[in-house]
Amino acid sequence: LAGGAHLDVARLAESKSLGFLLGFAPAAWVASPARAADAEVPRRPSVRAVGRALAAMFAAHGVILVLGSGWLARSIGASAALEHGVLPYLPGALVKSVLAGAVTLAVRRR
User: What's the start-to-end Cα distance of the chain, in Å?
Assistant: First the structure.
């Protein structure tokens, strides 16, 4: 795509990361309750609303990791896919979700 290259669908289908890329669309749908929960809260969000938003964010990360590791497992096996495609990313997913919740709280309190 960059530099005038064309999209090679066959090569993309062979990619080990295709599952992770395809996981973003359903993850966005799963995370949409986080946006809805944020929209319905007053200036001071309740613990319940923040909990719902965090749960939606965690679930969205889960969708990406499950679809991505499932696709990855086709080429390297399930155990290796879990070890290399899921476990290293769990801490980052946790931190991103908590930071997103903290930003949501900070913005709502302004």
Answer: 42
Task: Read off the pTM.
Answer: 0.75
pLDDT digits (tens, 9 = 90+) for 80-100: 999 999 999 999 999 988 887
The burial class, CB within 10 Å (0-12 / 13-18 / 19+), for 44 is exposed
Q: How many CA atoms lie within 13 A of 100 on its CB side?
A: 21
**pLDDT tens track for 18-77:** 889 899 999 989 887 655 555 554 556 667 777 777 888 889 999 999 999 999 999 999
User: What value, to the nearest 5°, has the Cα angle with vertex 38 and ends 53 and 57?
Assistant: 25
Q: How far apart are CA 98 and CA 100, in angstroms?
A: 5
**Running DSSP on this structure, what letter comes out for residue 16?**
T
Distance CA 57, CA 78 (A): 25
d(CA 60, CA 14): 24
* AA identity, residue 106: A
The residue type found at 18 is: L
